[in-house]
Design goal:
Layout (H helix, E strand, L loop, with lengths): L3 H21 L23 E7 L2 H9 L4 E9 L8 H4 L7 E8 L6 H12 L7 E2 L2 E2 L5 E5 L2 H16 L10 E4 L3 E3 L7 H4 L4 H17 L8
Parallel strand pairs: 6-7
Antiparallel strand pairs: 1-3, 1-6, 2-3, 2-8, 4-5
Helix pairs in contact: 1-7, 2-4, 2-7, 4-5, 4-7
Length: 224
């Protein structure tokens, strides 16, 4: 027989789970419009790099790993120095780093603008300042780390486009900044969702992002 205290604990845990799920679920029920400004698709294969920060890197990495045309997605740190690029130090929120994901993509299959569209549509909530769902701190900020002036131009133009269209109920707070360097995170962070699919944090915060990617971008979704 279940004790009253145990029943109460289960109720509290269930309510907390629902709250976390609501915080971590993608904001949009439908994909955002495609960027009006984008780079032309390359005629021949050849990898390019993009770096995005949108809260805990586990979910952002998982989304991009499942995008057709993406060859690799790596969790890591961007915005700070090499000497502070480790999980324990970054978690202090005082390193200037953001948990980030480096995406290596084939521009003959997917454009930088299409990656931005997915980033804003399903990978995170770009209206949350220095947090993402249950995670709070500057290390969880929304940021686009551009690697060249073309990426900067496309990212700024898309944010302006979404803002003018009032695509979100609140202002977009995503930073667009030059990438100083990217530092891969520890091995245990890589491909975390695939290795821990039943962890409550993953179930409540990140699985909905993958589901939204598959539903909103079926032609872009790639099973891995």
């Amino acid at each position: 027989m279940t004790k009253p205290s145990q029943s109460l604990s289960r109720v509290i845990l269930s309510l907390l789970a629902l709250l976390v799920a609501a915080c971590g679920a993608p904001l949009n029920a439908a994909p955002l419009p495609p960027p009006a400004v984008d780079a032309p698709k390359a005629a021949a294969p050849g990898l390019q790099r993009a770096v995005f920060a949108g809260g805990c890197f586990w979910g952002v990495e998982a989304v991009f790993r499942h995008v057709r045309g993406v060859q690799a997605a790596v969790s890591g740190y961007a915005g700070g120095d090499a000497k502070t690029a480790d999980y324990e130090t970054v978690s202090s929120g005082a390193t200037r780093h953001a948990e980030s994901v480096q995406v290596m993509f084939d521009p003959s299959q997917v454009s930088y603008g299409e990656l931005l569209r997915i980033f804003f549509s399903v990978a995170h909530d770009p209206t949350e300042l220095n947090r993402q769902g249950p995670d709070v701190g500057t290390q969880y900020r929304s940021a686009i780390f551009y690697v060249d002036e073309e990426q900067k131009r496309i990212a700024q133009a898309y944010i302006q486009q979404l803002s003018a269209a009032k695509a979100f109920p609140r202002a977009i707070v995503t930073q667009v900044v030059a990438l100083p360097a990217f530092y891969p995170a520890e091995d245990y962070h890589q491909d975390y969702l695939a290795r821990h699919p039943n962890q409550p944090y993953i179930v409540f915060n990140d699985m909905p992002k993958l589901a939204a990617l598959k539903e909103q971008f079926p032609a872009r979704y790639a099973a891995r």
